[in-house]
Design brief:
This protein has helices spanning 3-8, 18-34, 53-82, 84-93. The chain has 102 residues and is mainly α. Helix 2 (18-34) packs across helix 3 (53-82) and helix 3 runs antiparallel to helix 4.
């Protein structure tokens, strides 16, 4: 997310997507608080790469909706709410979704 967008609160999605983006952001916060986005071992709710399955589904949907700018926007919100550590885990959980790079 760019400096201007962060300062002025410009959102990288149309207003009709607001509710869906908010729902996904809230769900990611809940996942981060309850399970983390990564695990040391595979197995539900984590895939064979130890990444949270639902987190990846949300990342793919966000990418479909608004590409990398929307994913970055949500990532910044997760970072502000949950901190750098969990935000870094989210980065890795989203690796290889669209243009996202951990």
């Amino acid at each position: 997310m760019g400096f201007i967008e962060d300062i002025f609160g410009i959102k990288p999605f149309p207003s009709h997507m607001r509710q869906e983006v908010e729902r996904f952001t809230t769900e990611l916060i809940q996942i981060g608080e309850a399970d983390d986005f990564l695990s040391e071992r595979p197995g539900r709710p984590f895939n064979s790469q130890c990444r949270h399955i639902r987190t990846r589904e949300i990342g793919k949907r966000l990418h479909e909706m608004g590409g990398l700018p929307l994913m970055e926007y949500v990532h910044v919100r997760i970072n502000k709410k949950l901190g750098k550590n969990l935000a870094a885990h989210l980065e890795y959980a989203w690796a290889e979704i669209g243009n996202w790079m951990a």
